[in-house]
Amino acid sequence: MRIYLTRHGESEYNVENRLGGDPGLTQRGREYAHALQCYCKQCDGFPTMCFTSTKKRTIETAAGMAITKIPHAELDEINAGVGEHMTYEEFAAAYPMGDRLRATEKLTYRYPSGESYIDVIERTRQLAVDTLRRGEDILIVCHRAVARALVHHFTGVAPKRVPFIDIPLHSLLVIEDGQMTSVNIDS
Ligand code: G3H
Q: Which is nearest to 12 in space by CA: 57, 64, 67?
């Protein structure tokens, strides 16, 4: 089975370097959604099922695709707690210790009133198990921290590496038999 994994298209918060929230897509993000839709149409054997998070930016990214879409709260982005809606710079100024811990202990650092990467790994575990058990190709449109956790579940990459896995915007990852490759989609 093939798992197609992507982040949502660029959001208003991505442009402002802001955490969390429920922003919509930018024009550039909508162009990625369109490019993904075109890729999915011309790709032989592309999945007929798509999981999104419950956030607007993933739902908008998948909206144009003529496949079954199911939103899952387990796929919502890491909850940044007190940092939600702040820019990274605002968070560092308001919570300097938190900012330092995110640099040195990013896997276990839990945002006050929010989550850690370990929490995200745990919250996505059952969905990953169920997805593998279904055994059918699937497209998952989610968020950076969640995509990192899913890469752990689907490829076995060590937890300590999870918070640092490079998952750029507008890239489509394909995971098959625990191996991950990246597909270039021009938008
Ligand atoms: O908070 C959302 C970010 O996309 C997660 O990435 O943990 O590297 O800041 P980060």
A: 57
Rounded to the nearest angstrom, the gap between the alpha carbon of residue 17 and the centroid of all alpha carbons in its chain is 16
* Residue written as token pair 């938190």: 98
| % of residues, the chain, pLDDT over 90 | 94
Give me ligand 1 centre to Cα 129, in Å.
Answer: 23
- Confidence class of residue 187 from pLDDT cuts 50, 70 and 90? low
Q: How far is the CA of 17 from the centre of ligand 1 (A)?
A: 10
Return the sign of the alpha-carbon dihedral for residues 18, 24, 25, 26. Answer: negative
Q: Would you call 144 a catalytic residue per the annotation?
A: no
Residue 15 one-letter amino acid: V
Over its C-alpha atoms, the chain yields an Rg (Å, rounded) of: 16
Per-residue confidence (pLDDT) for residue 186, from 0 to 100 = 67
